[in-house]
Amino acid sequence: MSEPFFFTPATTLTLAEIVRLTGAEPVAGAPLDRVIRDVATLDQAGPSDLAFLENPRYLDELSRSRAGACLIAPRLAAAAPEHLPALVVKDPHRAFVAVARALYPAALKPASLFGGQGVAPGASVHPAARLESGVTVDPGAVVGPGAEIGSGTVIGPTAVIGPGVRIGRDCAIGAGVTLTHSLVGDRVIIHPGCRIGQDGFGFVMGPGGHQKVPQLRRVIIQNDVEIGAGTTIDRGGTRDTVIGEGTKIDNLVQIGHNVLIGRHCVIVAQVGISGSTVLEDYVVLGARSGTNNHVVIGQGAQVAALSGVNSDIPPGQRWGGFPAKPAKAWMRELRAINRLAQGKGGGDKPERSDDEKH
């Protein structure tokens, strides 16, 4: 189906404006007055669309593309056909995103799903809650007593904002989110279905039963954090659970109590972070990786997908495997296991099949 599209460009840009925005260098003779109305992939772009190329595997698509212009890496610029104006730039994807952001500013932050402003009919806002002007609350949302919400923030339908929760300005709280025992900064995006601020998983186990440990602290989410759909973040038990400024969290991530996450970390889908783990600034956790409790992952460290971290990782290192270890050691082990599986490099020879024995 070709209709409807849910985002429409807010403006158009000439190639000259794109050059100024991205710092790209146009090839000789590029029509700088050409108007770009949209962005698209090389194979789908039309005469008023901007595409980009930074991977040589798509060179065949470049030669066939009908795009109005293409942001292209310097090493590939010579391959641009004469009919397609090339804008040469060091990082084509980053430049492409800058143009997309300029054309589609509304796509950067979720809007009201009800299309309204202010408190919609059917929303329940406690008289003791405090909402600044410009707050939007969609139908079915609940805002508890003592909650404070800053101007420009949108609370999606059926979201629940618990007592005393504070949410800063220009935030987006998605449909069905529950947000309790939390302090949220400015420009935070929390996508639908997140559960934030509930009890951490803490019990004193024993043969007579398991005694619940009171979870007494908060979740603190700093400015410019984005949290993907279905993610859960437990509040702290003995210290706050903290999500640092600018950190980006994918869908379906589990963050346990007392976790401290630094600034500008990237946590990919289905990661599990056990209680009291510390991630320093700029850490990257690959999809479906996990940590044991009380480990420290140093600044700038990266963990490969599907890895299990059960010991501290020094700053700046890349680790992978299960259990995780420095990437070079992990790859050496994988190569050694592969050689053994093929009957090479020592070890037992593969057992012959019955057919080979006769």
Automatic annotation (TrEMBL):
Q: Which reaction does it catalyse?
A: a UDP-3-O-[(3R)-3-hydroxyacyl]-alpha-D-glucosamine + a (3R)-hydroxyacyl-[ACP] = a UDP-2-N,3-O-bis[(3R)-3-hydroxyacyl]-alpha-D-glucosamine + holo-[ACP] + H(+)
Q: What is its EC number?
A: 2.3.1.191
Q: In which pathway does it act?
A: Bacterial outer membrane biogenesis; LPS lipid A biosynthesis
Q: Where is the UDP-3-O-[3-hydroxymyristoyl] glucosamine N-acyltransferase non-repeat region domain?
A: 33-101
Q: Where are the catalytic residues?
A: H257
Question: Sorted alphabetically, which InterPro entries does this protein's record hold?
Answer: Hexapep, LpxD, Trimer_LpxA-like_sf, UDP_GlcNAc_AcTrfase_non-rep
The Swiss-Prot or TrEMBL record annotates one GO molecular function as: UDP-3-O-[(3R)-3-hydroxyacyl]-glucosamine N-acyltransferase activity
Keyword entries, A-Z: Acyltransferase, Lipid A biosynthesis, Lipid biosynthesis, Lipid metabolism, Repeat, Transferase
GO CC field: membrane
The biological process GO terms on file are: lipid A biosynthetic process
Protein family: Belongs to the transferase hexapeptide repeat family. LpxD subfamily.
* HAMAP family in the cross-refs: LpxD
Describe its function: Catalyzes the N-acylation of UDP-3-O-acylglucosamine using 3-hydroxyacyl-ACP as the acyl donor. Is involved in the biosynthesis of lipid A, a phosphorylated glycolipid that anchors the lipopolysaccharide to the outer membrane of the cell.
Task: Describe the protein's quaternary organization and the partners it interacts with.
Answer: Homotrimer.
The name this protein carries in UniProt is: UDP-3-O-acylglucosamine N-acyltransferase
